[in-house]
Amino acid sequence: MYPQTEPHDNGLLDVGDGNLVYWEVCGNPDGKPAVVLHGGPGSGATAGWRRYFDPAGYRVVLVDQRGCGRSTPSAGDPATDLSVNTTHHLIRDLEQLRAHLGIDRWLVLGASWGCTLALAYAQRHPASVSEMVLFSLTNTTHREVDWVTRQMGRILPEEWARFRDGVPESERDGNLAAAYARLLADPDPAVRDRASRDWCTWEDQHVAIATGFQADPRFDDPEFRMVFARLVTHYWANAAFLADGELQANAGKLAGIPGVLVHGRLDISGPADIAWHLAQAWPDAELTLVDRAGHGSRGGIGDIVLAALDRFATHR
């Protein structure tokens, strides 16, 4: 990966609804514009994302989506209103930021949840997107949420049982993401803390299949845990606030946008058929399934992403 660079511009953009969204720009001010859509929802745009881009060739925009990272107010505060934090709000935020920075079109790099947001954004605003590079694909459908919160118990039965038992017995047969979201809004801070721990423990366990897995040290931070768990459960409980199957059904709207899709065959968090079906419906996408890789950038996925970004650096 490229050496670490520091932002040469940053700010907080007032996107309405009382939200200020943090953004930063690094690389070449005259380079090819690109925007990074982080995962989670709620992970925030960490500095490591900058290293995927040649700083001489790209003008890279990192943004912390509503409620997380350096954006305010923090979703970790139970008083923060999440009704104005949906996929549709995030799409509007991206368009406001693009206009604010004077960018005509930008390449979109997304991972995991960031793929769901990237696809929804590009289908809504295809003229704003020059290319897309997506890895660890998700569409955040009802089926995918049910898989990762319930059906995956067939693979990790003991771990899943502990995760299920973190919610009241009366709610264990229902929408587990919604049940956890209710716990995370409980007036008792001890209940909220326990729920955030249980949720983030399960998050770590279901990505641990791949070789070289390391537990996410950010989950040791109670503030990060609350932000992450509250946003993930909010979005998953509502299947990303999208019509079910919408992103797959509307993939034809991406025609003319070159795309690189990279997915690990050992990704049990997001089975490979998600990426495969998308590639069949998106005429300008090329899919690479990486045999020994799981969820995330390890196992060779990061190398393919880096190569794709290098290739697109000269596209205008």
From TrEMBL:
<feature type="active site" description="Proton donor">
    <location>
        <position position="295"/>
    </location>
</feature>
<dbReference type="InterPro" id="IPR000073">
    <property type="entry name" value="AB_hydrolase_1"/>
</dbReference>
<dbReference type="InterPro" id="IPR005944">
    <property type="entry name" value="Pro_iminopeptidase"/>
</dbReference>
<dbReference type="GO" id="GO:0004177">
    <property type="term" value="F:aminopeptidase activity"/>
</dbReference>
<keyword id="KW-0645">Protease</keyword>
<dbReference type="InterPro" id="IPR002410">
    <property type="entry name" value="Peptidase_S33"/>
</dbReference>
<dbReference type="GO" id="GO:0006508">
    <property type="term" value="P:proteolysis"/>
</dbReference>
<keyword id="KW-0031">Aminopeptidase</keyword>
<dbReference type="GO" id="GO:0005737">
    <property type="term" value="C:cytoplasm"/>
</dbReference>
<keyword id="KW-0378">Hydrolase</keyword>
<dbReference type="InterPro" id="IPR029058">
    <property type="entry name" value="AB_hydrolase_fold"/>
</dbReference>
<dbReference type="Pfam" id="PF00561">
    <property type="entry name" value="Abhydrolase_1"/>
</dbReference>
<protein>
    <recommendedName>
        <fullName>Proline iminopeptidase</fullName>
        <ecNumber>3.4.11.5</ecNumber>
    </recommendedName>
</protein>
<comment type="similarity">
    <text>Belongs to the peptidase S33 family.</text>
</comment>
<feature type="active site">
    <location>
        <position position="267"/>
    </location>
</feature>
<keyword id="KW-0963">Cytoplasm</keyword>
<feature type="active site" description="Nucleophile">
    <location>
        <position position="112"/>
    </location>
</feature>
<feature type="domain" description="AB hydrolase-1">
    <location>
        <begin position="35"/>
        <end position="295"/>
    </location>
</feature>
